[in-house]
Specification:
The complex is a heterodimer of chains A (148) and B (185).
Chain A lengths: L5 E6 L3 H12 L5 E6 L2 H9 L8 E4 L8 H9 L8 E6 L4 H9 L4 E4 L4 H20 L9 E2 L1
Parallel strand pairs in A: 1-2, 1-3, 3-4, 4-5, 5-6
Helix pairs in contact in A: 1-5
Chain B lengths: L8 H15 L4 E5 L2 E4 L5 H12 L9 H18 L9 H9 L3 H12 L3 H19 L4 H7 L5 H12 L3 H16 L1
Antiparallel strand pairs in B: 1-2
The chains are: A alpha/beta (148), B mainly alpha (185).
């Protein structure tokens, strides 16, 4: 319902990126709750807890130590428990190959990390708004592809 | 073997509602999709049971008047988008205020307040979603899809598709096709 908030999780090994990310969400008009993890292992451990609350949108950095974003994506897509999560790739890379490959593997959103904070706010706001539309209007998640 | 399944949400939801309401022995009349009139006063405990049963199916009774009106706006717009090929060429603002009996300004403000998006954006999103489902589930060409959705040209459809999703219709088509191949392997 309308008074709900969007639960957002980010896995990113860069401390500054994590900080900007959390700050950007604090300034959005849609209500959100944000949790961050610093690598893929930490993230998957948290998600795999049986009673864990699953995010509405999961943001994955591609280049992380121990377990990359792509490895997380593939694991997540193989597990039916996670089927309702929207997955956003959040990366410094904008190579067409990375973009198409992550979409094919099941990502819904591909974001090239912007350099300016205001751009980041705009992008995250767009992502949450579009995701909200999919969520509240029962649109087909299979067709949810967004590149920013 | 793999098959793709298309759902008729209206039929599906109406069917569930009908079954459950009969189970609870509540007499009702279906007004529009998503609007039901109870033909007798229903005791509170029965209503509670009704809510609980529907919740299992992800169906919820809407209480708030504003939310109801917004839902009507959405239903009207979706209907407009899905039936665009039937030759009606009215402006959405006129169509909407005619159907719902409120000024467009009022409806538009209310809509933005409740949904975090504008009516215009909602229409674009719905049209593009419809285009996506036609791209993935039918053999229609982009030209035919553009015509069906009343775009002035394929270029217009492609531009709006790209602006909304960040990718072109052709890339979209390729990604979905690859995904299906990957899944069936």
């Amino acid at each position: 319902m309308q008074e709900d908030y969007t639960y957002v999780v980010l896995a990113d090994d860069d401390e500054d990126d994590r900080l900007f990310f959390v700050e950007a969400f604090e300034e959005l008009k849609i209500k959100t709750k944000v949790d961050v993890y610093k690598d893929g292992i930490e993230l998957m451990d948290a998600l795999n807890q049986e009673d864990s609350m699953l995010p509405n949108i999961l943001f994955l950095d591609l280049n992380m130590p121990k377990k990359s974003g792509l490895e997380c994506l593939i694991d997540i897509k193989a597990n039916n428990r996670f089927k309702d999560m929207a997955i956003a790739i959040y990366s410094t890379s904008a190579s067409e190959e990375d973009i198409e490959n992550t979409f094919v593997q099941g990502a819904n959103i591909y974001i090239k990390k912007p350099s300016a904070f205001n751009d980041l706010k705009k992008i995250l706001s767009d992502v949450v708004t579009v995701n909200w539309q999919y969520h509240t209007n029962g649109l087909d998640k299979e067709n949810f592809l967004l590149r920013l | 073997m793999k098959v793709f399944i298309k759902f008729d949400f209206t039929q599906f939801c109406s069917r569930i509602l009908d079954e459950k309401l009969n189970e609870l022995n509540i007499k009702y009349r279906m007004l529009n999709f998503g609007e039901i009139e109870f033909l007798e006063s229903v005791p509170a405990d029965k209503l509670k049971a009704f809510d609980a049963i529907l919740k299992e199916y992800g169906i919820e009774k809407i209480e708030n008047q504003k939310v109801i009106l917004v839902q009507k706006i959405k239903d009207t717009l979706i209907d407009m988008v899905l039936n665009a090929n039937e030759g009606q060429n009215v402006k959405s603002s006129v169509y909407l205020s005619d159907k719902l009996g409120h000024s467009y300004g009022y409806l538009s403000n209310l809509f933005s307040e409740v949904t975090y998006t504008s009516i215009e954006n909602f229409i674009i999103l719905q049209r593009i979603e419809y285009a996506k489902s036609l791209i993935t589930n039918t053999d229609l060409s982009l030209t035919e899809i553009a015509f069906k959705l009343q775009y002035s040209s394929v270029a217009h459809l492609s531009t709006q598709f790209k602006n909304t999703t960040g990718i072109t219709p052709t890339t979209f088509q390729r990604i979905i096709a690859k995904r299906r191949t990957l899944k069936s392997n």
